């Protein structure tokens, strides 16, 4: 670091578990970009002050995580189209004092899915389990790929219906809500089944969101969870002949897009993945 180092960071509460500093600093080292990235714990009532600090100190970029992804929008100068449709911001770019809010979660997931499991999403039948914060960005980004069908199911039916309705306002073709009881049939006909629920996440690693045998052999089973790296849902689906896709790639590519927005330099995604993986496995 020297007096020309550009500053970056992630704000959240809590933030001590974040792998973003390791991953982004590796990206700076790998590309030779003169930047440094740190994690900042920001309490909800101090969010406005934190963003004013970013402006005053000339930070080039921030990532934003739970619980600030929605509240931060009120403090920014511009929200791009995707973040507006999703209703949340996870990346801020400081363009000469103008703070622009973007969302790289959904597009990060789709880039990972295409590079690691299914290069062509157009014409595919896709089922998404869960209608929480992560599901929204993923549905928006998947819908842009023109799948044959895109269905969302949630334990709490109203949330699935509201999510499908709200996305239909900003985007065609529309996302369709299906009832949890209809999932077995929907999954058996799908080319890709994606778990965006928190079911199966450590420490409850033995749980699965649905019976993995509902996904047909040859189809892709995908899970946003990356702790564990391979969930029981993915493990059992693979045993039945499904192709599987874990959540680590989404984390890497949401960071890769942020890095590219900030620096204009292609992100060293393989090195970023290696860094995060090493922090899990201790290698
Ligand atoms: P969230 O907003 O809290 O949503 C949680 C979702 O899980 C809701 O749809 C909820 O359904 C469902 N759910 C919880 N317990 C359930 C159960 N026992 N049975 C059925 N459904 C259940 O969380 P989120 O932010 O969307 O995150 C969801 C998961 O994605 C987490 O595991 C998180 O770690 C992961 N994630 C990964 C990445 C990545 O980079 N790979 C990024 C973001 C999130 P109800 O509406 O019925 O409560």
UniProtKB/TrEMBL annotation:
<dbReference type="Pfam" id="PF18317">
    <property type="entry name" value="SDH_C"/>
</dbReference>
<dbReference type="GO" id="GO:0008652">
    <property type="term" value="P:amino acid biosynthetic process"/>
</dbReference>
<feature type="domain" description="Quinate/shikimate 5-dehydrogenase/glutamyl-tRNA reductase">
    <location>
        <begin position="116"/>
        <end position="198"/>
    </location>
</feature>
<dbReference type="GO" id="GO:0030266">
    <property type="term" value="F:quinate 3-dehydrogenase (NAD+) activity"/>
</dbReference>
<dbReference type="Pfam" id="PF08501">
    <property type="entry name" value="Shikimate_dh_N"/>
</dbReference>
<comment type="pathway">
    <text>Metabolic intermediate biosynthesis; chorismate biosynthesis; chorismate from D-erythrose 4-phosphate and phosphoenolpyruvate: step 4/7.</text>
</comment>
<comment type="subunit">
    <text>Homodimer.</text>
</comment>
<dbReference type="GO" id="GO:0052734">
    <property type="term" value="F:shikimate 3-dehydrogenase (NAD+) activity"/>
</dbReference>
<feature type="binding site">
    <location>
        <begin position="130"/>
        <end position="134"/>
    </location>
    <ligand>
        <name>NADP(+)</name>
    </ligand>
</feature>
<dbReference type="GO" id="GO:0005829">
    <property type="term" value="C:cytosol"/>
</dbReference>
<dbReference type="GO" id="GO:0009423">
    <property type="term" value="P:chorismate biosynthetic process"/>
</dbReference>
<dbReference type="InterPro" id="IPR046346">
    <property type="entry name" value="Aminoacid_DH-like_N_sf"/>
</dbReference>
<dbReference type="GO" id="GO:0009073">
    <property type="term" value="P:aromatic amino acid family biosynthetic process"/>
</dbReference>
<dbReference type="InterPro" id="IPR041121">
    <property type="entry name" value="SDH_C"/>
</dbReference>
<feature type="binding site">
    <location>
        <position position="65"/>
    </location>
    <ligand>
        <name>shikimate</name>
    </ligand>
</feature>
<feature type="binding site">
    <location>
        <position position="254"/>
    </location>
    <ligand>
        <name>shikimate</name>
    </ligand>
</feature>
<dbReference type="GO" id="GO:0019632">
    <property type="term" value="P:shikimate metabolic process"/>
</dbReference>
<feature type="binding site">
    <location>
        <position position="247"/>
    </location>
    <ligand>
        <name>NADP(+)</name>
    </ligand>
</feature>
<keyword id="KW-0028">Amino-acid biosynthesis</keyword>
<feature type="domain" description="Shikimate dehydrogenase substrate binding N-terminal">
    <location>
        <begin position="10"/>
        <end position="92"/>
    </location>
</feature>
<comment type="similarity">
    <text>Belongs to the shikimate dehydrogenase family.</text>
</comment>
<comment type="function">
    <text>Involved in the biosynthesis of the chorismate, which leads to the biosynthesis of aromatic amino acids. Catalyzes the reversible NADPH linked reduction of 3-dehydroshikimate (DHSA) to yield shikimate (SA).</text>
</comment>
<comment type="pathway">
    <text>Aromatic compound metabolism; 3,4-dihydroxybenzoate biosynthesis; 3-dehydroquinate from D-quinate (NAD(+) route).</text>
</comment>
<feature type="binding site">
    <location>
        <begin position="18"/>
        <end position="20"/>
    </location>
    <ligand>
        <name>shikimate</name>
    </ligand>
</feature>
<feature type="binding site">
    <location>
        <position position="105"/>
    </location>
    <ligand>
        <name>shikimate</name>
    </ligand>
</feature>
<dbReference type="GO" id="GO:0004764">
    <property type="term" value="F:shikimate 3-dehydrogenase (NADP+) activity"/>
</dbReference>
<dbReference type="InterPro" id="IPR022893">
    <property type="entry name" value="Shikimate_DH_fam"/>
</dbReference>
<feature type="binding site">
    <location>
        <begin position="154"/>
        <end position="159"/>
    </location>
    <ligand>
        <name>NADP(+)</name>
    </ligand>
</feature>
<feature type="binding site">
    <location>
        <position position="90"/>
    </location>
    <ligand>
        <name>shikimate</name>
    </ligand>
</feature>
<keyword id="KW-0560">Oxidoreductase</keyword>
<dbReference type="Pfam" id="PF01488">
    <property type="entry name" value="Shikimate_DH"/>
</dbReference>
<dbReference type="InterPro" id="IPR011342">
    <property type="entry name" value="Shikimate_DH"/>
</dbReference>
<feature type="binding site">
    <location>
        <position position="81"/>
    </location>
    <ligand>
        <name>NADP(+)</name>
    </ligand>
</feature>
<feature type="domain" description="SDH C-terminal">
    <location>
        <begin position="247"/>
        <end position="277"/>
    </location>
</feature>
<keyword id="KW-0521">NADP</keyword>
<keyword id="KW-0057">Aromatic amino acid biosynthesis</keyword>
<dbReference type="InterPro" id="IPR013708">
    <property type="entry name" value="Shikimate_DH-bd_N"/>
</dbReference>
<protein>
    <recommendedName>
        <fullName>Shikimate dehydrogenase (NADP(+))</fullName>
        <ecNumber>1.1.1.25</ecNumber>
    </recommendedName>
</protein>
<feature type="binding site">
    <location>
        <position position="226"/>
    </location>
    <ligand>
        <name>shikimate</name>
    </ligand>
</feature>
<dbReference type="InterPro" id="IPR006151">
    <property type="entry name" value="Shikm_DH/Glu-tRNA_Rdtase"/>
</dbReference>
<feature type="binding site">
    <location>
        <position position="224"/>
    </location>
    <ligand>
        <name>NADP(+)</name>
    </ligand>
</feature>
<dbReference type="InterPro" id="IPR036291">
    <property type="entry name" value="NAD(P)-bd_dom_sf"/>
</dbReference>
């Amino acid at each position: 670091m020297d007096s020309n180092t550009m500053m970056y960071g992630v704000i959240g509460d809590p933030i001590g578990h974040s792998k973003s500093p390791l991953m982004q600093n590796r990206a700076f080292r790998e590309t030779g970009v003169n930047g440094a990235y740190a994690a900042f714990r920001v309490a909800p009532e101090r969010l406005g002050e934190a963003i004013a600090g970013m402006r005053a100190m000339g930070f080039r970029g921030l990532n934003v995580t739970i619980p600030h992804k929605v509240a931060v929008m009120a403090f920014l100068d511009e929200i791009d189209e995707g973040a507006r449709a999703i209703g949340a911001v996870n990346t801020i770019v400081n363009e000469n004092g103008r703070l622009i809010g973007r969302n790289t979660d959904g597009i990060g997931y789709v880039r990972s899915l295409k590079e690691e499991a299914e290069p062509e999403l157009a014409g595919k039948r896709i089922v998404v389990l869960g209608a929480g914060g992560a599901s929204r960005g993923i549905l928006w980004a998947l819908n842009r790929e023109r799948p044959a069908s895109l269905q969302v199911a949630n334990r709490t039916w109203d949330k699935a219906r509201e999510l499908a309705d709200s996305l239909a306002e900003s985007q065609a073709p529309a996302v369709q809500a299906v009832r949890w009881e209809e999932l077995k049939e929907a999954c058996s006909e799908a080319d890709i089944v994606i778990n965006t629920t928190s079911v199966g996440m450590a420490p409850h690693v033995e749980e699965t969101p649905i019976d993995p045998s509902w996904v047909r052999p040859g189809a892709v089973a995908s899970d946003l969870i990356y702790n564990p790296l391979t969930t029981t849902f993915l493990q059992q689906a693979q045993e039945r002949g499904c192709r599987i896709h874990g959540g680590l790639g989404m984390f890497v590519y949401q960071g890769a897009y942020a890095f590219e927005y900030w620096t204009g330099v292609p992100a060293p995604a393989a090195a970023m993945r290696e860094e995060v993986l090493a922090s899990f496995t201790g290698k």
